[in-house]
Amino acid sequence: MVEHLALNQGVAGSKPVGPIPYFIPFLIPYFKMNEEKRNKILNLIDKARKEHALIIVEGKKDEAALKKLDLINIFILKKGNLPDAIENIINKKIKKCVILTDFDCEGRKLYMILKRELVKNGIRIDDKLRIILMKEKLSHIEGIDTFLS
Predict the structure, then answer these.
(1) Which positions of the chain have pLDDT values less than 50?
(2) Which of 46, 73, 117, 134 is the one with CA 20 to 30 A from 20?
(3) Structural domains in the chain?
(4) What's this model's pTM, rounded to 2 decimal places?
(5) Beta strand pairing call for 96-99 and 124-125
């Protein structure tokens, strides 16, 4: 008979949540990002850095995660003030922008509005990084640094 270890066993103040199903160790390689995809994402981040593209994010945690990846030209959207944010971005006279809002419902809505308004004002949107992160099932940008490690 195979022994199953309880999750969180031995951690002070935590209760075991139950046995680990026997199939979990076999699934781990399927959820781990392969090196080729990781390098592709890092290359896109490096390209955005070199081109001085403006990176638009939803919050300070997103900004902190991107700063760990050496991105510095980051614009944080403030809740409830989207028209002013769009105006501020347009006034920066940038040529290229990467919109990295989260992939939840609210983030997708923000993305669509931002893209429409910025393109209408002559700003080029680079979607490559967003698309590959979406395909890799990253739900929140604030987790990108741990996602890539």
Answers:
(1) 1-11, 23-31
(2) 134
(3) 34-148 (3.40.1360.10)
(4) 0.75
(5) parallel
